[in-house]
Hints:
Blueprint lengths: L2 H10 L2 E3 L10 H10 L9 H7 L5 H12 L5 H16 L3 E8 L1 H5 L5 H19 L2 E9 L4 H11 L8 E5 L11 H9 L3 E6 L5 H9 L5 E4 L7 H10 L2 E4 L1 H6 L11 H6 L3 E4 L4 H4 L3 H12 L3 H13 L5 H18 L1
Parallel strand pairs: 1-2, 2-3, 3-4, 4-5, 5-6, 6-7, 7-8
Helix pairs in contact: 1-15, 5-7, 16-17
Amino acid sequence: MNTTTIKKFIEGIPKAELHxxxxxxxxxxxxxxxxxxxxxxxxxxxxxxxxxAYSFNNLQEFLDIYYAGANVLIEEQDFYDLTWAYLTKVHExxxxxxEIFFDPQTHTDRGIAFDTVIKGIYRALQDGEQxxxxxxxxxxxxxxxxxxxxxxxxxxxxxxxxxxxxxxGLDSSEVGNPPSKFERVFAxxxxxxxxxxxxxxxxxxxxxxxxxxDLLKVTRIDHGNRCLDDDKLVERLADLQMPLTVCPLxxxxxxxxxxxxxxxxxxxxxxxxLVTVNSDDPAYFGGxxxxxxxxxxxxxxxxxxxxxxxxxxxxKASWLTDREKEKRIAQIxxxxxxxx
Length: 340
């Protein structure tokens, strides 16, 4: 199948994105614009110089620059502009539903109020739904390199916005910060009615995925690559049809895989795992949803049928109602029938 045909097919298929850090959509151009507006210094002299810095050897190197970039976000309008830029971008890529992470501690730790952060993000999401037709859910992530007390404080801040926040997650430096560190925080979050998810098995071991399932009672595993190290775990994930929100270009950029040709997605599909494709931190990792779909399709020679299955999975794994899921999946089936 030629590149133009497959590219066109990917561009047209409706998709949901379930693993996206809003702070990770911060394009250099917007970063400079907001830095200037807020009179904040960036240690890079130009957009090009900043883009050149987006070359990482591991998760920590990326996180260092990610947190530095977030420093220029100060006013509610900054968070609005960041979110709106992402929504307009993915609207062009036929992403019709998003479930996005935000990291309040990245901002509250430097004196920005929780209210400022969430109000800007939420207002943009509402505008995106009204003006672009993109439905959404919001997930608040705890930073796992910080302590339990900080996570509890953040959860407390979130209670005022329970009707805005659907779930809580766990992200940042994985190795050495197992899910068990936050078992009590997640128990409290569940008690308050939040859905739970967690990053596990990206750089950390398969054991962390077990902990996320058993201790944090998650309904989705973010990443989950390392599940393939443990046959019993794979069996359990397949039985549960536990969604895995996999991020191919992120895995490549952070050296989780050295070549997309070695990406575990085909093996995951083969083992009946509920795999979805997502962009993670697209501004830093060289691509949004369509670039991720195209990257793995070309590297692994996926068929239109496999691409269609991945798009269907993105809705199956979402927190939309059953009726909404059925509607979206039917649209994808129609699209496949008309374009294969």
